């Protein structure tokens, strides 16, 4: 499949099957914002759940946090965002369009109207959304929508460290919305102005930072592979020194082969002691750690794997999308890992029939507490299998007229399309085994 075509097909599938809709669509949409529909919200929750499971649940050195989106404005001064979270902007004098200076074509021509030499000098544009807290709109009431969740973690370092009694090396993980007034959003849910981040801040003794940085690079790469992205579609790209953020002592991106080329999927940064030192300075609180065993005090260094939930979902969708020909007909199938698929099991009565429906309902009631299921009795069974393939449902359970006699159902596999007959009483264990 030609690559640009792949993106178009995934976007169409998302729209057609209720994964992702343009936001405010009945008003003509709203500037690169997207809403997650019934299947989309299930899949995105699964992406976040898989991240949380691997980062928090399965580890004894990471705890979770859910901090507020609105924070004290001094936070963003301390973090450097007020001063340095900017992109250079130019305007085309001819067509008045605005572009990021670092993303202009080499030809120097305006990407919109083609005029040459028409750009203004670059100006720095801050990406934080500003708002006002309370009834008065003045300088004293300015607040920002957070552009990352990380700062909520840094300002809670002491709270979490003392209440959880964790000692470095330990981490604090958080999933939540972030907002950036991106100048050039685009490529569907790849770059938007409102998105969800999955961030870990991992606090370590200073001398161990390089080792932990390497560890998290490999670990994060492994996570994407484990959830089904082929290794040849992923790579780790260390940043050049001139690309590094103001705080970073080293950064590597996990990159994915998007249809338009390699691009960032997740960033892993060695932030040194920048954040805790800055917040100590601006808040006047001591944010160092006293290591009793070694009898020394230090400011922990921070390794930060920072991923976008929406961008990860896009990568999983692109990697899973497949079309093949089955008996002369096109079959579209999302080969998603069962942990990510919106539905895990579909229950399908062979036809809409008053004798089959009660059995299908009984099977559905039995499966519903254990799996995310759907019951579909509309249309031919072949069409219903295709509909489930399209949204990546790993297994279908079909109840037919034999079921009325033998109390068994057919389990049909999404990828191989193989069918097995399984007694209803054994369905739960059978499905659990197949899905694990
Ligand atoms: P980019 O240059 O691609 O916009 P960035 O380097 O600004 O990304 P980071 O600040 O490293 O991004 O953010 C960490 C992660 O958050 C990114 O790897 C990406 O997955 C996600 N992310 C960042 N900005 C956006 C956005 N505007 N829309 C969706 N996801 C985003």
Question: Quick gist of this model?
Answer:
The protein has 436 residues and is α+β, with helices and mostly antiparallel strands. 31% of the residues lie in helices and 29% in strands. Adenosine-5'-triphosphate is lined by residues 180, 182, 191-192, 195, 197, 264-267, 306-308, 310-311.
Give an overview of the whole structure.
The protein is α+β, with helices and mostly antiparallel strands and 436 residues long. Helices cover 31% and strands 29% of the residues. The protein is built from 13 helices and 23 strands. It has helices at 3-16, 38-57, 73-78, 81-84, 150-155, 157-164, 209-226, 274-283, 309-320, 356-367, 381-390, 401-406, 427-435; strands spanning 20-22, 34-36, 62-65, 86-91, 98-100, 123-126, 130-132, 142-144, 170-179, 194-204, 234-238, 251-258, 261-272, 289-291, 296-298, 301-308, 321-326, 329-334, 345-349, 373-375, 395-399, 408-413, 419-423. It has a seven-stranded mixed sheet, with helices on both faces. Strand 22 (408-413) and strand 23 (419-423) form a beta hairpin. The longest helix is centred in the N-terminal third of the chain and has 20 residues, at 38-57. Adenosine-5'-triphosphate (ATP) binds at residues 180, 182, 191-192, 195, 197, 264-267, 306-308, 310-311.
């Amino acid at each position: 499949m030609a690559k640009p075509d792949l993106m178009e097909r995934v976007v169409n599938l998302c729209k057609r099957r209720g994964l992702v809709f343009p936001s405010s669509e009945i008003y003509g949409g709203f500037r690169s914002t997207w809403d997650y529909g019934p299947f989309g919200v299930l899949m995105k929750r699964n992406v976040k759940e898989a991240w949380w499971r691997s980062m928090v649940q399965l580890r004894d050195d990471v705890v979770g946090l859910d901090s507020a989106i609105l924070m004290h404005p001094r936070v963003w001064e301390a973090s450097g965002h007020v001063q340095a979270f900017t992109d250079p902007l130019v305007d085309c004098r001819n067509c008045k369009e605005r572009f990021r200076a670092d993303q202009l074509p080499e030809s120097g021509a305006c990407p919109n109207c083609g005029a040459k030499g028409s750009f203004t000098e670059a100006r720095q544009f801050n990406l934080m959304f500003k708002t006002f807290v309370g009834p008065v709109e003045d300088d004293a009431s300015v607040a920002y929508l957070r552009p990352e969740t990380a700062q909520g973690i840094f300002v809670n370092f002491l709270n979490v460290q003392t209440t959880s009694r964790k000692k470095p090396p330990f981490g604090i993980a958080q999933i939540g919305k972030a907002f950036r007034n991106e100048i050039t959003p685009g490529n569907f849910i790849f770059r938007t102005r409102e998105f969800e981040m999955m961030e870990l801040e991992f606090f370590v003794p200073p001398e161990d930072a390089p080792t932990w940085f390497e560890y998290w690079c490999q670990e994060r790469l492994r996570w994407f592979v484990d959830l089904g992205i082929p290794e040849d579609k992923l790579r780790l790209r260390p940043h050049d020194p001139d690309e590094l953020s103001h705080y970073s002592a080293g950064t590597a991106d996990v990159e994915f082969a998007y249809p338009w080329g390699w691009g960032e999927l997740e960033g892993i940064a060695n932030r040194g002691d920048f954040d805790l030192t800055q917040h100590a300075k601006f808040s006047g609180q001591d944010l160092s750690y006293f290591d009793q065993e070694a009898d020394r005090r230090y400011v922990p260094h921070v390794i930060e794997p920072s991923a976008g939930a929406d961008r990860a979902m896009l990568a999983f969708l692109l990697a899973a999308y497949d079309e093949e020909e089955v008996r002369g007909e096109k079959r579209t199938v999302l080969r998603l890992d069962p942990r990510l698929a919106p539905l895990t099991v579909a229950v399908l009565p062979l036809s809409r029939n008053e004798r089959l429906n009660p059995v299908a309902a009984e099977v559905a009631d039995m499966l519903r507490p254990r799996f995310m299921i759907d019951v579909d009795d509309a249309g031919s069974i072949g069409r219903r299998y295709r509909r489930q393939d399209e949204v990546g449902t790993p297994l279908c359970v079909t109840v037919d007229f034999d079921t009325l006699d033998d109390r068994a159902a057919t389990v049909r596999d999404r990828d191989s399309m193989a069918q097995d007959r399984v007694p209803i009483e054994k369905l739960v264990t059978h499905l659990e085994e197949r899905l694990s």
